[in-house]
Each structure stands twice: as structure tokens, then as C-alpha cells.
Amino acid sequence: MIQHRSYTQKVDVYSFGIVLWELITGLLPFQNMTAVQAAFAVVNKGVRPTIPIDCLPVLSDIMTFCWDSDPDNRPTFSQVVKMLEAAETEIMTNIRKARFRCCIHPTATG
Question: Which of 5, 37, 72, 84 might form a disulfide with 33, Cβ 3.0–4.6 angstroms?
């Protein structure tokens, strides 16, 4: 979209990968850049957010698949749903390792 190509669902798939990254990390991507700098880095330099080393590989794979630099290589949302459904047991079994930081609340100690 930034390159003035026709808008397709593949733009939304890329955005979904970013939202998934935000859920996992609890951070905003490209915090040290302006929106214009981030867009330039993504489009012209292939910059993507850094995936935490302790991220579940299945989630890492989904994000990187969604971020493919060639929109034609990105999955459809139907494929993303199938990947998430296939990974559901692994994600739920390893939720602490999955590190959905936005969903983890500190426990009260007394």
C-alpha cells in the first residue's frame, strides 16, 4: 500500500502479523522511528520487528509468513486461521513460553 500498489487483503495480513507481535511482546513496533521512517524501513530495507528469542516457533513462523516482503507469498486469512487452529494446543500448553505479555498480570504477593 505504501508503494501505491493496489490494496489487497495481503496488507491486512501483514498488519495481523504486527498485531500478533504486539500481543506477544507488549510493545509497539519501531518505537525509535517516526511513522514515515518505519514505513521507509519496512518497504525499502525489509525491516521487521525483532521476534523475542523465547517466542514459540509456531508463532514466530506465523508472523514471518505474514510479513513476507512479497505480498503474493503472504498467507490468506483462511490459512492464518488454520495455522492458529493447528497450533492451539501448543500455544495453550505453553502459554507462559508464548509470552503474551499483554495478557499476563502480576500476581499479588502478601
Answer: 37
Please report, for the domain that includes residue 31, its CATH number: 1.10.510.10
| pTM tops 0.85, yes or no | no
Summary count for the chain: helices (H), strands (E): 5, 0
Write out the residue range of the structural domain in which residue 37 sits: 9-103
Query: Which three cell numbers mark 45?
Result: 530495507
Cell numbers for 95, please give them: 502459554
**Total domains present in the chain:** 1
Q: Is residue 109 part of a domain?
A: no
- The answer to whether the CB of 98 falls within 8 A of the CB of 56 is yes
What is the per-residue pLDDT across 6-45, written as a single tens digit (0 to 9) for each?
778 999 999 999 999 999 899 999 999 999 999 999 989 9
